[in-house]
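Quick start: what a row looks like.
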Amino acid sequence: MKLNVVYFSPVGGSLKVANYIAEGMGFQVVYVDLTDPINRQDDLVFSSDDIVLFVFPVYAGRLVRIPRYFFKRIKGNGGCAISVVTFGNRAYDDALLELSMLVDQAGFNHLAAGAFVCEHAFDIGLATGRPDSKDVLIAKSFGQQIKKNIQANKSFENVMSSIPGVYPFKTRFRHDFSGPLVPFTSEKCIKCGKCIESCPVAAIDKKDPKTTDPKICITCFRCIRRCEYHARKIELSDFDDHTSWLSEHYKIRKEPELFLPN
């Protein structure tokens, strides 16, 4: 049996979680990385025989907008799916319900859903090192249980009923900042182009990497993490205040939450 893993993972956490769940399921795996724009050029069409694991991060309480918009081009055709979101130890708010609804609308039948903690994209000391060994065991066990349910032909009709969230969804949970929440590029930049190549939304000017379009940038921190010269960062005092507040108020460890059929 084949497992299709469709993910968006700018800083790597969501892919790690996807790998551990897939390992637990023990099927042959085909990956579709929606972080790479080239993989968003064509529709994704599945059949009733397919199993698809969707793993996407939470941004400010909502499902990250790139895969959210791309769901218009995903066709489930009666296939089976697992909905998973990853979050930086604050909360996943409405994001898992949002993903589950999109999966349902795309024509899939739900096998399971889950929310896993990953190191916060802002790299501010929240959930550092996660997913860790405990998360790995939970993710693999989650995959194993899904496989057992498939083999037992268990009914999956009630998976979505217990997923928390409020619909209609809030427009956003993020604070308003004093300026655009896009990376500033310092004089350390040597214009190597790695940030341009790695940006999942092509928000960085190809001729001048110091220019980032605030209307396109999703503040995923991929360019910041991948810059070997530490030339990119968010330079807003109220952003620094916000991240300090996050680090202080959400440092207590949160655990994965799993939703399987009763």
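That is the whole record. The chain has a mean pLDDT of 94. Residues 195 and 226 are 7 Å apart (CA to CA).
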